[in-house]
Amino acid sequence: MYSVKKNIDIIIKNGIVVTVDDKNTIIKNGAVAIKNSKIIDVDTNQQVLNKYFSKKIIDAKGKIVMPGFVNAHTHLAMTIFRGMVDDTVLSDWLYKYIFPAEQKWINPQTVKTGTELSMLEMVHSGTTCFNDMYYYQDVTAEVAKNVGMRGIINEGLIDFPVANSKNPQQGLDYSKMLLKKYENDDLISVGLGAHSCFSCSEDLLKDAHKLAVDNNTIFHIHVAESEWELKTTIKKIGLTPVQYLNKLGVLTQNSVFAHGVWLNDIDISLLAEKNVGIVHNPECNMKISSGIAPIPKLLDKGVKVGLGTDGVASNNNLSMIQELHTMALLHKVNSMNPTVIPAEQAVRIATMGSAKVLGKDKEIGSIEIGKNADIIIIDTQNAHTTPIYNVYSIIAYSLYGNEVTDVIINGKEIMRDNKILTIDESKVINDAKIVSEKIENDIL
User: Fold this and answer.
1) Of 135, 198, 216, 273, whose CB has the highest number of CB atoms within 10 Å?
2) Same domain, yes or no, for 341 and 206?
3) Cα separation of 270 and 247, whole Å?
4) Whether residue 47 sits in one domain with residue 106
């Protein structure tokens, strides 16, 4: 027995602790100790309660305690365009609808409103870290910090004039400002976000990548998302998007490629050789009929794979629980092999997989001593989560996404008993409705 208990910030007790560590350890009657934003212990109830005391004890009896989900590719402010245009191909979706709408409607205020709405949705469905590419990312960062959300912000870099920059150099300068401002922030990191091969010049791609490398951060870009993109790049350059980027020298371990649907064997070998990360976005790819990314083949070749929702204008939600569910089922039917991406692997891809792709696996993605305390608690006292023979099966195949009751990010309670503590939910929803009504009246 321990004679003197150490006073700490939070104890989570009585939970089914799914650690997602290297051994996939599960502690059926477990507890987690948190102090100064870090996980300082994870063990059985008896061991943790014998060693620590806290005025804040969360009883997770009958609940799953696990690392928060890491959404490795999204466009948060685009929630204001949710459902504005559906059921169309990617090229039309972008050039006929989204790009024009962004030119007219994206400004600091709409980015604030859209990002706040995204924060509500992400927290309620258990996301604790995001990787966002969009405009006015300083606003996105401010909203995230107000909510208490961890994230990587990437200002969208593109060849033509957009909401926050008249030319690529302005976008790069803005990114440099962000890098300096958030250099030592405990929640916000800054990446470099080039839109795509077809919308960025060679110089812009090289400059963005160099800035990312020089600042030890990620280079985030859409790659091989559609057959149209593949054919356009081959026709224009004579290479696939991956091979073109390799020629430019931007395939490195800090590169984060969203989608990776249209990849051949040479592309996959290059991704593995250069240690590039791929972010799978199955629901968006299905909805726009972009295709099915060869995720099982990428995993077999040792390519880093994470999971993202993309933006809600093309998904149309931000639930990582739904996304990992879709991923697991999609690749089973696509391969006609029910053993492909089993539940345990699907959960790992949505947590540690995404963290590794983003270069954050030493900090987040699992419940381990020394890592940041980014933890979610999931209620299992429901008909659809009973019985529990395999906890991974429940997470991957049974959850709807609204079972998350508590969210802790960086050791701070963000949601308790289904209520977000850091932001006025009703005001955010009302503000978003006002913006959408203006857009709808303009369209009509």
Assistant:
1) 135
2) yes
3) 11
4) no
Give the CATH number, domain containing residue 193: 3.20.20.140
54 and 180 in a common domain? no
Both 339 and 261 in a single domain? Answer: yes
- Please give the single-letter amino acid code of residue 396: A
Write the DSSP string, 24-41.
--EEEEEEEEEETTEEEE
**8 Å CB contact between 20 and 349:** no
Sign of CA dihedral 5, 410, 280, 436: positive
Residue with tokens 């060849």: 159
Task: Give Cβ neighbours of residue 227 (< 8 Å, ≥ 6 apart).
Answer: 262, 290, 291
Tell me, yes or no, whether 74 and 136 share the same domain: yes
Query: 343 is in which domain, residue-wise?
Result: 69-357
Distances (CA, A) of 124 to 16, 43, 119, 274, 419: 20, 26, 8, 36, 8
d(CA 146, CA 142): 6
Cα 409 to Cα 61: distance, rounded to the nearest angstrom = 20
CA dist., res. 232 & res. 90, Å (int)? 13
DSSP-derived secondary structure for 326-353: HHHHHHHHHHT-TTSS-HHHHHHIIIII
CA atoms of 15 and 115, how far apart (whole Å) = 32
Helix axes 265-274, 241-248, angle to 10 degrees: 40
Q: How far apart are CA 141 and CA 71, in angstroms?
A: 15
Domain-located, residue 256 = yes
Cα atoms in the Cβ-side hemisphere of radius 13 Å centred on 377: 27
Give residue 245's identity as a one-letter amino acid code: L
Our CA dihedral for 158, 164, 165, 169, rounded to 10 degrees, sits at -70
Alpha-carbon distance 444 to 442, whole Å?
A: 5
Instruction: Confirm if 224 and 240 have CB atoms less than 8 A apart.
Output: yes
Query: Mind listing the pLDDT tens digit of every residue in the chain (444 residues)?
Result: 456 899 999 999 999 999 999 999 999 999 999 999 999 999 999 999 999 999 999 999 999 999 999 999 999 999 999 998 899 888 888 889 888 888 899 999 999 999 999 999 999 999 999 999 999 999 999 999 999 999 999 999 999 999 899 999 999 999 999 999 999 999 999 999 999 999 999 999 999 999 999 999 999 999 999 999 999 999 999 999 999 999 999 999 999 999 999 999 999 999 999 999 999 999 999 999 999 999 999 999 999 999 999 999 999 999 999 999 999 999 999 999 999 999 999 999 999 999 999 999 999 999 999 999 999 999 999 999 999 999 999 999 999 999 999 999 999 999 999 999 999 999 999 999 999 999 988 865
- C-beta of residue 376 within 8 angstroms of C-beta of residue 149: no
CATH of the domain at 391: 2.30.40.10
